[in-house]
């Protein structure tokens, strides 16, 4: 796949922030949906520990040049939980 957008890292006052592209967001939501369907990873309204490493490997397979770490993925999932109630319903 050839991506016209690229994720960028901007330098702020204290630390650098990574800007996610729409393609990365879409793939993350797809991966979260797939994990939510698997009963092995579900536990009382949340995911079991270790799901971020699974998401990291999934995103690396789908988007080889994204360079996302589990910490960045966890932060983005937290962002989605606060901003979008549909993700909360999926859990």
From TrEMBL:
It comes from the Eukaryota. This is Myb/SANT-like domain-containing protein.
